[in-house]
Specification:
Oligomer: single chain
CATH topology of one domain: Heat Shock Protein 90
Largest sheet: 6 strands, antiparallel
Structural class: alpha+beta
Strand content: 15-25%
Number of helices: 17
Number of strands: 22
CATH class of one domain: Alpha Beta
Length: about 650
């Protein structure tokens, strides 16, 4: 925000933004290095354990194979005397679960003497599978005088087998050869403990990398990082391969890693959010400073006075226009409590009452007018609109008023009103002047009748033969004609006299009848037929009946004048009145020559006329009168030839 001195906020230096970013990068790098070192240490430990386990397994397999060599070399001749004794010795040897599947006794020439379990089959020879024949292995063992292992060759059910040939000596001579047939699958199953099989997939591969036998958990995933060691014995390019199973990371370690990553993300997000917030705040402060300067310049240039007050009525703000309006300075007004120095003494009570009602929340909702006093004592009129001041929390803190000095405007409006009234009165006088001959004829008729009735009465009285009943009838008719003349004179007087505009209930039917009575003589003289079509029970309106009659009379006289050049049979004037669509419509239609289109667009302009002797103010005054009564006046061509001028007033509210 801006400080109280109004100074523009200073943006944060660039290196202050760089410092938290650098700290965050170092923090992320440290966390990454810690996780990497932890992972690397764990893998090195697992690798060391793997190598240790493989060496132990290799030593265990070698020990078992060597131990079996010793036991095979311990077969004595008494044990070979019959098959039963041989079978018992082999059973004891196979019971050790060392991977042996069969033991065979060969004579020095390589012939089979005994075998258990089962008989010697083709697998022992191995020639069909491309391996070195067993006879070759036997001769090699006999010649070397020590145990010799054969290459591995496949047997049934996908298993592979290799043999160990152990020469047995008696008295320095070879007494026979003990052959042990190892199943690679059985060797793995018998020699590998369960706890080791739970950790690794252990297999024996040949020289091309194909597995001859494997002990593994099918459902477990293996790691790509394994360890291999040559299997000797039996040799022949056999390799012991050990691959660890992929061990799930401990939950605690994983949670710790996730927590560190999460915290790093939170720190990053916090820094980003803080940076964004500060940037937005700085941008808001700069925008507020610019807005404040703009608003101050705008308020200084206003001609409308602005005044703010708190809830106690104390002035908290005024703009230069208000100070110029009342004549007191801002320093003299701000902080001042009522009564105010610009309240005029003669209107003090009225001003104080409105002031109190506004503070209580019961002031005028629309604009209202008061009189204020300038510093030099001059009174002036102000138009005021008060609105509540609401702060950022939605709480009202006071009232803001806008004030316009309307003194000159009111004076101008009063002069314009006076001019309008004079113009309307002049128009009425002109209208009556134009109708003078017709009105004189109208007055001559009742006056002549009165004169005739009076002469007749005098003659009857002088003759002495007067009948009272006949005299009463003649005097009554004379009085009726006098009343008729009086009505004509009174109607003319009311129409032409200058008076203040009134607002009173007006009967449109009565106004239409009065206007038609005024023009009746002129219409008869010009042979104009007047037809009326007026709705029954036509609603009344509120307004000045004289002004409405003047507007309607002007339209009727214009219609009569428009038909002067027409044949007598076409001189017909029609006045209609009715309601519809929420309005009251009065139309005056003539059958004259009509109005050209270029003139129709300018009919209601001041000083524009289609008459050679006209002033061009009649229709303009008519429209002003009708619009002052919230109505409208328009022109449209008559389909039967001529013109139609229509007046429309809104229906009064029920």
């Amino acid at each position: 925000m801006l400080n109280h001195s109004g100074m523009k906020p200073v943006p944060v230096t660039g290196w202050l933004w760089l410092l938290p970013r650098l700290a965050f990068v170092l923090f992320v790098a440290a966390v990454g290095a810690l996780l990497w070192l932890s992972e690397r240490t764990e893998r090195e430990d697992q690798r060391a354990i793997l190598i240790s386990d493989v060496l132990w397994l290799e030593q265990n397999l070698r020990f078992q194979l060597t131990h079996n060599e010793e036991r095979l070399g311990q077969i004595s001749l008494p044990q070979l005397s019959n098959a039963t004794t041989f079978e018992a010795h082999v059973r004891a040897l196979l019971a050790g679960k060392t991977g042996l599947r069969q033991v065979i006794w060969l004579n020095p020439e390589g012939g089979v003497l005994h075998s258990f379990p089962g008989t010697v089959d083709a697998y022992l020879v191995g020639e069909t599978y491309g391996a070195v024949p067993s006879s070759e292995t036997a001769r090699l063992a006999k010649s070397m005088g020590q145990a010799v292992y054969s290459p591995a060759y496949p047997i049934d059910e996908g298993d592979w087998q290799f043999e160990v040939h152990v020469p047995v000596f008696r008295d320095g001579h070879v007494a026979g050869i003990a052959v042990g047939a190892y199943s690679i699958r059985r060797l793995l199953d018998d020699s590998i403990p369960w706890w080791l099989a739970e950790r690794y997939r252990i297999g024996i591969m040949d020289n091309v990398g194909s597995f001859l036998g494997v002990r593994s958990k099918v459902e477990a995933a293996i790691d790509a990082d394994g360890y291999q060691i040559p299997l000797d014995p039996p040799g022949h390019d056999l390799t012991l391969s050990t691959t660890p199973y992929r061990v799930q990371t401990p939950l605690v370690g994983r949670l710790l890693s996730i927590a560190l990553v999460f915290l790093a993300i939170v720190v990053l997000w916090s820094l980003w959010a803080l940076r964004r917030h500060v940037q937005q705040r700085l941008a808001a402060e700069v925008a507020l400073h610019n807005e404040y300067a703009f608003r101050k310049a705008m308020e200084d240039s206003l001609q409308t006075g602005m005044r703010a007050r708190d809830l106690e009525g104390r002035i908290t703000y005024v703009n230069p226009a208000f100070c110029r309006m009342v004549g007191w300075t801002e320093a003299e007004l701000v902080g001042r409590a009522p009564p105010m120095p610009y309240w005029p003494d003669q209107y003090f009570d009225e001003t104080r009452d409105i002031h109190d009602r506004i503070l209580a929340g019961h002031g005028p909702e629309d604009v209202f007018e008061l009189k204020f006093k300038r510093r030099d004592g001059e009174l002036f009129d102000v138009l005021i609109h008060e609105a509540p001041l609401i702060d950022a929390h939605g709480k009202q803190t006071g009232w803001m008023g806008s004030l316009i000095d309307v003194t000159e405007r009111k004076r101008t409006e009063e002069l314009a009103q006076q001019q309008q009234e004079r113009l309307q009165a002049t128009a009425r006088l002109v209208t009556m002047g134009e109708m003078a001959s017709s009105l004189a004829h109208e007055l001559n008729q009742p006056l002549a009748a009165i004169s005739g009735y009076n002469t007749g009465c005098l003659n009857l009285l002088e003759s002495g033969t007067a009948d009272i009943a006949e005299l009463k009838i003649a005097l009554a008719k004379s009085a009726e004609q006098a009343q008729r003349a009086g009505r004509i004179i009174r109607r003319i007087y009311e129409f032409v006299r200058r008076a203040e505009p009134k607002s009173e209930p007006c009967d449109l039917v009565a106004i239409i009848d009065e206007v038609l009575d005024l023009v009746e003589a002129d219409a008869r003289r010009q042979e104009v037929r007047i037809l009326t079509n007026i709705q029954d029970a036509l609603p009344g309106i509120q307004g000045d009946r004289v002004l409405i009659a003047q507007a309607l009379l002007n339209l009727v006289r214009n219609a009569i004048d428009a038909m002067r050049s027409q044949p007598a049979e076409r001189r017909q004037l029609t006045v209609t009145a009715g309601t519809g669509h929420g309005n009251i419509t009065v139309a005056v239609a003539d059958r004259g020559s009509g109005i050209p289109e270029d003139s129709a667009n300018r009919l209601f302009e001041p000083f524009y006329t289609t008459k050679a002797e006209g002033m061009g103010m009649g229709l303009n005054i008519c429209r002003s009168v009708i619009e002052a009564h919230h109505g409208r006046l328009w022109y449209e061509p008559n389909l039967e030839g001529g013109s139609i001028f229509a007046i429309q007033f809104p229906l009064p509210a029920p």
